[in-house]
Amino acid sequence: MSTTSPIIIAFASPKGGVGKSTTCLGIAGALSKQGKLVHVVDYDQTETLWNWYSTTGARDIIPNLTVEKSPPENLRQYMHRFLELKHDYVLIDLPGTLTPDMLALGVLADLTITPSKLNVPDTLQASKLAADLLDTAKRIGKPLQHRVLINDVPTMLSRAQAFTLEEIDGSNLPRFKTFIYTRPAAYTEAFLNGRPPHFSDTSRPAITKAIEELDALVSEIQSIVGQRQEERAAA
Amino acid sequence: MTTKQSQQFRKLELTKAFAVVDQIAAEKGIPSLTYPSPPATSADVVPIPSAPSTLAEAEAAENAKTTPVSLAKPLKPAKPKKLSMEDEEGAAAMQRLTIDLPSYLFKEIAQRGFDQNASAKYVILQALQNDRFTIKPEDMKKDGRRAKKETRHAA
Asked: What's the gap between Cα A196 and its chain centre?
């Protein structure tokens, strides 16, 4: 059990369907597999993660992972409670629309992850959110930890996708080095059987590859939030 | 910094951040997300009727429907069906005839109708009757619309 306040990771995107819940689930599974105590707050109106947790028997499969449905009223008062939780990580799945609460959480979280597929609408919305978060962080006077996660990447990129990736890399949009590839057998299957890749059948190649990329991603995440923890301790 | 101090520091961060975020949201026109409030009483909840499992049950449920359907606007009373000519006081069935007339004759018929307060049709039927064509008295009617206008002008 952690002796410090939990590390808060927000999954935020002004656009729906980019893979926030799926990525959140994969990362939660990876952190749980490391033995971390993980708490997921499903603030999305679709309640994807809450449904997953409450209907698939996930609570029995992953005992050190808990999911709660956030009360819709007054998120701001509710946010104070995150700091008092005794978990190692609190992952917050936000609704796919830009709100003042998204900006507040996006800046105050130790890390904000914006999944984006390699297409223009997703990338455009990710860039806009990055600009809004940066503006908010500057005015609050807090350093921002925001990363775009390139999600649902096919093994062969089309010319348009390759161009989009070049544009992202050419801009100042910070992104994870790790890509999440298109692996429905590993990621979307978790919503049926309650098992994220780390708790699935590891003899299947798709699961093994998903675990590898999630581990690489979690390694990057821990490197970022590790620095933030040191900064807070030094302050 | 102890854990407690750290948490207090972060609480201050939250309060400050909310104020700034509200200002930014107002400047950029970012709307807040609102959720529908749950119904206050159970009376507000409309129960969903259970679906009939058999065809016979469905038919019985359909026949048992006696509740009138509420409508946003009250229905206008249906206009009475216009009676055909043969329905009016034993008048004969009519057939339409379209013919071309010299314009001077057309004008003369129209003028005669105006003078007699009658329709062009009445003027033509009258002429045919004078030429010994058979036209029953019940089919020889002046136009009703003219009679109404006459009444209105008279009033």
From this structure: 14
